[in-house]
Amino acid sequence: MELALQKKFLENPKMYQYLKENSYWFKYLNRDANIYKEFESKMKELYKERPTDKISEMIDNIDLINGVLMSLK
Q: At what angle do helices 13-21 and 36-46 cross, to 10 degrees?
């Protein structure tokens, strides 16, 4: 695996944890470093770090606050 990829994994604890939990990615990343984008996408999908996940979570929080405020009336 390229040193630049190893450095990225060590800098990001969630990415490193995902790599440890899904060790089959070692084989793929050793064979082709261009698969890194796919790896990162899968990791963000699992840990809900995509922009759509963040927006959805924010909407859920707003709905929760709205529900609490409506019940206080």
A: 100
φ/ψ (deg, to 5) at 50: -75, 155
pLDDT of residue 20: 92
State which H helix or E strand residue 1 sits in: none
**Could you tell me which residues come within 8 angstroms of residue 20 by beta carbon, excluding any fewer than 6 positions away?**
none
The residue with tokens 């084989």 is: 27
**pLDDT per residue as tens digits for the range 28-46:** 999 988 899 999 999 999 9
The band of 73, judged by pLDDT with boundaries at 50, 70 and 90, is confident
* The Cα angle at residue 50 between residues 44 and 55, in degrees rounded to 5: 150
Q: Report yes or no: 7 and 35 within 8 Å, Cβ to Cβ.
A: no
